[in-house]
Amino acid sequence: MPPLPAPLTRLRLRLRPPPFAAIFIAALFAAFVYLTLRNMGLYPTIFGDEWTYSNFARLTPYREALIPSYLYYTVYGGTSACGDAFLECSRGVNALFYLGAAPWIYLLARRWCGQWTAAAVALLAVLRPSNTYTAYFMPEAMYFWGFWLFSWCVLALHGLPRRAGLVLSAAVLGMLALIKVHALFLLPAWCAFLLYQAWRARGTARPWLLAGLGDVALALLVSAAVRYGLGYLYAGRGGLLLLGQMYAGQAQQRPALAQLIAPALLNLRGHLLALLLLLPLPLAAWLLPAASARQRAALPRDSAALAVYTLLMMAALLATTVLFTALVAGGGNGIENMTRLHMRYYDFALPLLLLCAAAQLAPGAQQADGRTRLLVALPLAALLAYGYAILPDAYRPSRIDSPELFGANASPEQFKMLTLLALGVLGAWVLHARRGVQLFLFGYAPLLALLGGAALTTALREAQRPDDYVKAGVYARQYLRPDELQQLTVYGGDMAMLFKTRFMLDNPQVQLVQLAPGQTIDTGRFSEDSWGLVVGAFALPQRLERHSGARGFSLVRLPPAGIVIRFRESALPPGVRGIDGMSTPEDWGRWSDGDRVTLRFAAPLPAALTLKLDAAAFGPNASDDITVTVGDTRRLVRFGAARAPLALRFDTDGGATAITFDIPHPVSPHALGLGPDQRQIGLALYRLQVEPVDDNPD
Q1: Is the C-alpha dihedral spanning 117, 118, 120, 124 positive or negative?
Q2: Mean pLDDT, residues 377-384
Q3: Exposed/middle/buried for residue 675 (C-beta within 10 Å: 0-12, 13-18, 19+)
Q4: Going by C-beta distance under 8 Å and a sequence separation of 6 or more, which residues neighbour residue 280?
Q5: Neighbour-count burial for 50-89, b at 16+ CB within 10 Å, e otherwise
Q6: SS (H, E, C) 82-121
Q7: CA 262 to CA 327: how far, in whole Å?
Q8: Beta bridge partners of 302
Q9: Whole-angstrom distance, CA of residue 388 vs CA of residue 411
Q10: I need a labelling partner for 441 at 20 to 30 A (CA). Which of 156, 523, 592, 628 fits?
Q11: H or E segment and range at residue 611
């Protein structure tokens, strides 16, 4: 073949396919853009959970956090730098962590398959519908990344000395427990895996059981040292509570074992059927060694380790999930609650099954004969048909608890199609093992991710429309000052939705009160400076007045008795014509400026009144009397240097239209060496109330 002309040669060089690394990075970047655009503009949807983690990460000291996820709080506490956009910032960090797990998964997959197949497995792992967890202010995304870092340390650090890899894995697990407490449930499975590794390495001079127990002891020691050491540094003695106060309280609920068996089995059935629909071929390939001694003997050492690690992890996580559901959600008293499938407690580990499937494509991997594969596939196919018959009606998949099953069950037609395709994948695997694996990895699994992702995206985008609870929280946060939010109580008919309002208010001091239909609001909770936010159509008691709001919610408070001036507010209340001798409003109130303060009123003040003051004196004025005059009545008052309330009785002729304060020693902070402020101040006024006195109430 003659050589190409020079221009065509240069064109060919320019059109050379980009290197693999560039394509893989570009795919991850495209996934990041997709997650960012999908999650943008959503309001919080998981109510109590999102509020809990946002509160502990951003608003509460570590020592007061009820859940010891201190590493998570450290990272996500930084989202406060984004101001009101902290939720959007947290979603960006979520996407980075979630997609950051792909390199660890890729590196593990490369142990058994080529780079393109490994890249496909890694991308499938992060493009599953469970990436919807990146939309929530919760630790799932960071935990997903941490779990795969841990798994890589356990399965792939063969280049390091054995004990060095073990210590590193244990340290990662200890830190993982400070991202999410549930990492503690990985420990029994990992300890069992260490014993398995010791058994596989038997034949040395040292007995394998003794070596394995030594590894387990070292793993426990290092994990505990990291977990407790960091916990103590973060929160003192409170950081040493392994489960934290909240989960420790839940652990005290211990129904009798007999009460747990039936609901736990019901819940376990749902999980197993769901896993079979989502991962039919990985489960078949995973079970194959159990059905064939020849297959067990033919497994490469690394593939056997992966299969055992997957078995132990999935068994431990499934047992934990089912027990938790039976213990907390069911407790033997509410069987209907056991139809809730909390797949998010092990969803992060499901890519292990993808790796088990990919391991079947390893060069030189020996496949069992078709008859053995048929023996494995037939019962799985029967269970698939059984799951198709009962899963949609017997269980309640939700986009939060079980996003992948929710996406697969988006419509009856889609659920039927996926079930038939899962049966077809099993059939193809029976006929030709490698072709069946390829059909699953490059056909069924991407289709499941695409269809499920579309259904989840549609459901997520519904959170772009704010409901009354969101609108109420946004309005009150913008209207009220931070110190007023401290005294706010929110009323509504749905406690879960009230958590959403508190999330928008972004203040842990806000109180929540659930009202039954027709229930009256208790005005005993109100003071003259407190506020109420009522969401829904609830009648207001006569003592409460609607201050402001919109359709669906009202901001309410007690009407003040008489005239109230809050000096931090620039606007004057009705009935006050002006203020002389005072500086501009500040966050706390106002300073006097000069030797006299005059408050002028539009109408004569009551003849008998109580003047309620919240004030403090400055400098030498704290040791001298200040003259307070209403009409022709004067009172000498000594204010302390600290803020304190004071009530003064005045009896006048009923014609007074002003209140004056004569300051004996106005002085500037500059003159006292307290800074550059040149104002002649003497009295700090926070609040003043003119309250009429009725001496003849009858």
Answers
A1: positive
A2: 93
A3: exposed
A4: 380, 384, 422, 423, 425, 426, 440, 444
A5: bbbbbbbbbebebeebbbbbbbbbeebbebeeeeeebbeb
A6: HHHHHHHHHHHHHHHHHHHCHHHHHHHHCCCCCHHHHHHH
A7: 12
A8: none
A9: 13
A10: 156
A11: strand 608-617
Radius of gyration of the chain (CA): 34
H or E element that contains 546 = strand 545-550
| Sole residue written with tokens 């007995």 | 207
The CA distance from 68 to 227, in Å, is 10
For residue 349, which of 321, 327, 368, 381 has the smallest C-alpha distance? 321
**Could you tell me which of 85, 86, 94, 100 has the C-alpha nearest to residue 38?**
94
> In the 3-class helix/strand/coil scheme, how is 397-414 assigned residue by residue?
CCCCCCHHHHHHCCCHHH
The 3 state secondary structure assigned to 150-217 is: HHHHHHHCCCCCHHHHHHHHHHHHHHHCCCCHHHHHHHHHHHHHHHHHHHHCCCCCCCHHHHHHHHHH
Decide if pLDDT at 265 tops 90: no
Residue 250 pLDDT more than 70?
A: no
Question: How confident is the model over 61-77, as pLDDT tens digits?
Answer: 999 998 999 999 999 99
* Helix ranges restricted to H, 325-439: 351-358, 370-394, 403-408, 412-431, 433-439
Confidence band, pLDDT 50/70/90 cuts, at residue 668: very high
Would you give the distance in Å from CA 224 to the centre of its chain? 25
Pairing of strands 596-601, 633-637: unpaired
pTM: 0.84
Q: Is residue 325 within 8 Å of 300, Cβ to Cβ?
A: no
Most confident of 219-223, 356-360, 528-532: 219-223
The residue behind tokens 């999935």 is 314
- pLDDT tens per residue across span 114-169: 899 999 999 999 999 999 999 999 999 999 999 999 999 998 875 566 678 889 99
Q: Dump pLDDT digits (tens) for 466-507.
A: 999 999 999 999 998 888 898 899 999 999 899 999 999 999
Which CA distances in Å does 590 have to 189, 641, 671, 686? 64, 15, 20, 7
How many whole angstroms separate alpha carbon 334 and alpha carbon 385? 28
**Burial of residue 253 (number of CB atoms within 10 Å: 0-12, 13-18, 19+):** exposed
664 phi and psi angles, rounded to 5 deg: -70, -35
Q: Roughly what angle, to the nearest 10 degrees, separates helices 257-278 and 370-394?
A: 120
Tell me the C-alpha to C-alpha distance, in Å, between residue 459 and each of 284, 451, 463, 499.
32, 13, 8, 20
138 phi, psi to nearest 5 deg: -145, 160
| pLDDT grade for 315, boundaries at 50, 70 and 90 | very high
What's the CA gap between 409 and 407, in Å, rounded? 5
608-617 and 644-651 strand pairing: antiparallel
Length of the chain: 698
- Of 113, 92, 81, 116, nearest in space to 35 by CA: 92
* The residue to which tokens 């001798």 are assigned: 581
**What six digits make up the tokens of 45?**
């949807």
Amino acid residing at 665? H
Q: How many other β-carbons are positioned within 10 Å of the β-carbon of residue 294?
A: 11
Residues with Cβ < 8 Å from 578, sequence gap 6 or more?
A: 572, 600
- Cα 24 to its chain centre, rounded Å, is 29
- Tell me the C-alpha distance between 144 and 95, whole Å: 11
Joined together, the tokens standing for residue 158 give 């063969």
Tokens in use for 124?
């499938």
